[in-house]
Amino acid sequence: MQYSVKNMSNIVTNANIWRHLFPPSEQLNEITLLNAGFIPQQTEWHTSNCIQNFWVLWYNFSPGNACISGSSRHELTPDNIILIPPNTVYSGIFKKQVSHFYIWFKTAGPFEYPERKVLNIPAQPFIEKLHQAIYFTPKTKLILFNLLSSILLDIPDDFFHSEQFKIKSRTIEKALNFIALHRGQVNNTQIAAELNISPIRFSHLFKNEMGMSPQRYCLQVKMAVADQFLHLGWSIEDVASACGFADRYHFSKEFKKYQGISPGKWQKLFSQQKKTE
Question: Left if phi > 0, otherwise alpha if psi is -120 to 50, otherwise beta: which for 137?
């Protein structure tokens, strides 16, 4: 069997990937897969003060690199899985070349409203599933669901359903849905108009709730979309246009500022993998 970042993306998503990336909460099942991938040679990458409205799972098949959240530093090793809940601020530091596996997903039902704290989970009980998950087979999607279900069921119940970790303001919840619907390509005035409040009031509410400005959050949503288009082999020009940037130079500048690597180099990681298949 061969592993493939391209194939992993295709099995988890489809041609309408962005219609399904941030579905309304009432349409969610207990676990909704958004994206998954395996990068045999992940290096020269970082993201600072990132926040998304979905879970992020990271696993490294060799030692090196870290996830930082608040005052906590979580080393990425073959012995542990890093699980980042929605709306949790984190930074990723990748300076050493490693084999890196990731999953993006959303949860509902008994796994709704998790604590906003990065989890460091022993990998040993899930090693077999982790190794199975990097290969493209007709069972890949089921393997990913099984892996996530097993991990979530292993987390203590008191990590979930705490009202203090729920988005406190219905206004901000609506704002997040509106931003997701438009892939981050909206400004404060447009969002405030949708919410029927003033832009100043909206900006103040959003920053208090989410810990960053609305436009910083919108940029992160756009970068998540751009990241996936690059994985799917889109040209940098097409990605820039689809994500609402003036041109490829503006997009490249923002992408490098956000990821610590140019979009060309980021995409090259995946093109190199495809040549080895």
Answer: beta
